């Protein structure tokens, strides 16, 4: 396996070196300065709009491969189309965006380093030219036009986080990307869990202080049992094992998604949504049982029965709709699609 990895690195280095060092028609010195100034101005303008520049074939050839060039370009070559279902690509793109944002906000920001992204489905010729057979890949194109094996970022060895990539970028560009660490977006997952835990502990202490007979209360233990079972069947352990983020942001539109569209992956927020559906369905069944076994007035029992049935059916229908959203071939539905 190590031999194949070494062979791939050497072949990629040779291909990129040949592509980059291919001689171009020399231009007049004044014309070169004019072209270079225009290239830097255009790249700086795009960087201010979006820290990661999305490039096609023409842009890649003109701004990355062709001379003159007095700047370095960090390029991520990946496949982000939804039908590719490449979770590693999505995660790497998010970290790459964080890295570019951190560079923009650091003191070392200048027009000497730019970040770009190339999608396979938008520019397959670039992947064919570089003979790339897998994604994602991160390459460094230096202003010195000398491509070495160190200009290939090895995700499997170095890691996929923005913090780890920033160290490599600093090594290759001789510039400190950020002062101390990359600026990660706010994660509300653990503060939310801490708040829920503190609320439960506070409620338990309050009850223990005023009434201790609750220990023998069957309803309490039923609620505690449901409090354990519902998160488990809603995917809590799966999100914990996969270390799923609370939500997911689209690097292009800036929108935040709380439900992942792929059936084999689940976000932490999605687990809480499914848990809420299960809680409401359980509440509907408990109210229905209460209405059937209590000695309340007949009209009141009918109202509670109808309300509980509606509560169960509505939330069960939403749960099936969520399944159909993640798996379009899911055959069952109630009320809504």
From TrEMBL:
It is a multi-pass membrane protein. Its main location: endoplasmic reticulum. GO terms for cellular component: endoplasmic reticulum membrane. Accessory component of the STT3B-containing form of the oligosaccharyltransferase (OST) complex. OST exists in two different complex forms which contain common core subunits RPN1, RPN2, OST48, OST4, DAD1 and TMEM258, either STT3A or STT3B as catalytic subunits, and form-specific accessory subunits. OST can form stable complexes with the Sec61 complex or with both the Sec61 and TRAP complexes. The association of TUSC3 or MAGT1 with the STT3B-containing complex seems to be mutually exclusvice. Keywords: Membrane, Signal, Transmembrane, Transmembrane helix. Residues 1-27 form the signal peptide. Pathway: Protein modification; protein glycosylation. It is found in: Endoplasmic reticulum membrane. Belongs to the OST3/OST6 family. The chain crosses the membrane at residues 188-208, 220-238, 271-291, 303-323. This is Magnesium transporter protein 1.
């Amino acid at each position: 396996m190590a031999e194949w990895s070494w062979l791939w690195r050497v072949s990629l280095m040779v291909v990129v070196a040949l592509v980059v060092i291919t001689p171009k028609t020399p231009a007049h010195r004044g014309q070169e300065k004019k072209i270079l100034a225009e290239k830097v101005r255009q790249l700086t303008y795009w960087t201010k709009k979006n820290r990661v520049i999305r490039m096609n074939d023409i842009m890649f050839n003109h701004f990355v491969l062709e001379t003159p060039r007095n700047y370095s370009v960090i390029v991520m070559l990946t496949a982000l189309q939804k039908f590719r279902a490449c979770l590693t690509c999505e995660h790497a793109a998010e970290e790459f965006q964080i890295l570019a944002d951190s560079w923009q906000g650091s003191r070392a920001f200048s027009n000497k380093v730019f970040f770009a992204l190339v999608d396979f489905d938008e520019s397959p010729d670039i992947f064919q030219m570089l003979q790339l057979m897998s994604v994602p890949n991160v390459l460094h194109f230096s202003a010195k036009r000398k491509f070495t094996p160190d200009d290939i970022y090895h995700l499997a060895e170095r890691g996929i986080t923005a913090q780890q990539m920033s160290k490599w970028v600093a090594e290759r560009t001789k510039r400190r990307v950020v002062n101390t660490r990359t600026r990660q977006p706010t994660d509300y997952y653990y503060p939310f869990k801490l708040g829920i835990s503190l609320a439960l502990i506070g409620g338990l202490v309050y009850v223990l202080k005023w009434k201790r007979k609750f220990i023998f209360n069957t309803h309490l233990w039923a609620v505690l049992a449901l409090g354990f079972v519902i998160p488990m069947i809603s995917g809590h352990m799966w999100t914990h094992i996969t270390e799923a983020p609370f939500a997911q942001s689209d690097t292009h539109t800036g929108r935040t998604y709380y439900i992942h569209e792929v059936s084999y992956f689940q976000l932490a927020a999605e687990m809480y949504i499914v848990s809420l559906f299960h809680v409401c369905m359980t509440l509907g069944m408990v109210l229905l049982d209460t209405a059937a076994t209590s000695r309340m007035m007949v009209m009141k029992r009918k109202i509670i029965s109808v309300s509980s049935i509606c509560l169960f059916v509505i939330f069960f229908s939403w749960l099936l709709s969520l399944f159909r959203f993640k798996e379009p071939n899911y055959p069952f539905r109630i009320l809504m699609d």
